[in-house]
């Protein structure tokens, strides 16, 4: 299974293509749109989200609600393009507006400067437009298809916010995806501790007034992955490594860990390894410190991925930079921004984890038909239980 996205933040649309999903997968477009709406939400978002009303259009690979086995092509339109059609015109550059919207003062922490240097762009808008986190909307659409694919195979995935700046907002480490969903959907931050939401809002408002931004920690839990996906045989077959790659590929992510991650380094091995139990249903573990992975393979316990999101680099109180033409000191460009996009990030990371897990399932079982795939996985689960 492979996927690809295209499109700029203020271009006409975002496009995504995914190839390798089996035929006969039922897709609920409403559920994709729900995730797109969740990505737009969350306390601390900027004004762009009031312009957009992200909905997906399926333009290939699906008929009467089911995949055809051919590449699935999705589109999310950018409503804001209406205000940028001349600036973003793919053919002509004869508008004064396009000159005015040129970006010459690269933002520290953004792709602007290095992107310009690498590709030879003298208008850094050519970098900004693609490096903008707007692109994550289409990854959410593609990931939501994979989320439905996984659900139909008994695998549930959820993303939520653990920490905003220094504030811990989800203190309990829950593994039950349905329970996590119920809790995090009861507030606008996607956190488990309902009593911390007001404090989080206050922190975001204060940061916004200061023209600053906030990052934090997101956690993704996947329940129902059968043991044995991924492999120990070579470094590039390890599924935890593939997950880390995909998570790191999301804008603003600076760190990834599995299970207890860095915390495990502070404890002796006896308090880190998960003891093996054999129960009526088969092999399991007493705890899940290792986040569902041993030897780069799923071990049947819930998969736990943590990600560190840096604060968004576009600041209303801009930092120092230099003009790329005059080289003189200046303040960084101020494009529209969010105080925090941590809640949105939890939906984006949930989506990329779904993409990676779906890829692992398709690689392992390689079936062209959803019905056959369901049978293969059911047989495999039985074989594991008998081991
Ligand atoms: C975003 C869209 C962007 C930004 C934000 C996230 O749109 P605009 O620039 O028109 O406001 O709001 O992205 C960034 C701040 C960034 O630096 O990439 C979105 O849809 O998530």
Report on this model:
Pfam families: Chorismate_synt (PF01264). Belongs to the chorismate synthase family. GO terms for molecular function: chorismate synthase activity; FMN binding. This reaction introduces a second double bond into the aromatic ring system. There is one protein chain. The chain is an alpha+beta fold and 387 residues long. It has eleven helices and 17 strands. It has one domain: 4-Layer Sandwich (Chorismate synthase, AroC fold). The chain has helices spanning 29-40, 48-51, 96-100, 112-119, 125-131, 136-151, 177-184, 197-209, 239-248, 342-365, 370-386, and strands at residues 2-6, 13-19, 56-60, 62-63, 66-67, 72-77, 156-164, 167-168, 216-223, 253-258, 276-279, 282-285, 293-294, 297-298, 303-309, 320-322, 329-331. The strands form six sheets. Strands 8-7-9-15-10 form a five-stranded antiparallel beta sheet. It has a four-stranded antiparallel beta sheet with strand order 1-2-6-3, covered by helices on one side. A two-stranded antiparallel sheet has the order 4-5. A hairpin with a 6-residue loop joins strand 16 (320-322) and strand 17 (329-331). The longest helix has 24 residues, at 342-365. The mean pLDDT is 97. The chain binds ligand EPS.
Please give the share of residues in helix: 25-40%
CATH homology superfamily: Chorismate synthase AroC
Please identify, by name, the CATH architecture: 4-Layer Sandwich
The helix-strand sequence is: EEHHEEEEHHHHEEHHEHEEEEEEEEHH
The structure class reads alpha+beta
Portion of residues in beta strands equals: 15-25%
Total of DSSP H or I helical runs spanning 4+ residues:
11
Spatial order of the strands forming the largest sheet: 8-7-9-15-10
CATH topological fold name: Chorismate synthase, AroC fold
Name the hetero compounds present.
ligand EPS
- Number of separate domains: 1
Mean pLDDT score, rounded? 97
**Distance between the terminal alpha carbons, to the nearest Å?**
29 Å
């Amino acid at each position: 299974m492979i996927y690809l996205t295209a499109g700029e933040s203020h271009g006409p649309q975002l496009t995504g293509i995914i190839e390798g999903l089996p035929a006969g997968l039922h897709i609920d477009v409403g559920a994709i749109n729900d995730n797109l709406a969740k990505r737009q939400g969350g306390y601390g978002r900027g004004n762009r989200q009031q312009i957009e009303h992200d909905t997906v259009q399926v333009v290939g690979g699906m008929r009467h609600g089911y995949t055809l086995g051919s590449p699935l092509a999705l589109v999310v339109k950018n409503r804001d393009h209406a205000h940028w059609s001349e600036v973003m015109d793919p053919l002509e550059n004869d508008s004064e507006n396009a000159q005015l919207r040129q970006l010459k003062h690269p933002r520290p922490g953004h792709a602007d400067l290095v992107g310009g240097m690498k590709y030879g762009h003298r208008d850094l808008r050519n970098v900004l437009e693609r490096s903008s986190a707007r692109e994550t909307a289409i990854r959410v659409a593609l990931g939501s298809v994979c989320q439905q694919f996984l659900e139909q195979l008994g695998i549930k995935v959820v993303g939520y916010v653990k920490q905003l700046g220094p504030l811990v907002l989800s203190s309990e480490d829950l593994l039950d995806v349905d329970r996590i969903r119920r809790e995090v959907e009861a507030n606008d931050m996607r956190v488990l501790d309902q009593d911390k939401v007001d404090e989080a809002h206050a922190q975001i408002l204060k940061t916004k007034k200061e023209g600053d931004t906030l990052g934090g920690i997101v956690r993704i839990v996947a329940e129902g992955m059968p043991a044995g996906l991924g492999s120990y045989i070579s470094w590039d077959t390890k599924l935890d490594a593939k997950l880390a790659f995909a998570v790191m590929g999301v804008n603003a992510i600076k760190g990834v860990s599995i299970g207890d991650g860095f915390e495990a380094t502070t404890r002796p091995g006896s308090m880190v390894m998960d003891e093996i139990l054999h129960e009526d249903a088969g092999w399991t573990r007493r705890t899940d410190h290792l986040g569902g992975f041993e030897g780069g393979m799923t071990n049947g316990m819930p998969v736990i991925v943590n990600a560190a999101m840096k604060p968004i680099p576009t600041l209303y109180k801009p930092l120092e930079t230099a003009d790329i033409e005059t080289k003189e000191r200046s303040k960084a460009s101020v494009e529209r921004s969010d105080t925090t996009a941590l809640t949105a990030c939890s939906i984006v990371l949930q989506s990329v984890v779904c993409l990676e897990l779906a890829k692992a399932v398709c690689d392992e079982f390689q079936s062209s038909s959803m019905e056959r795939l369901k049978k293969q996985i059911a047989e495999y689960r039985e074989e594991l239980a008998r081991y």
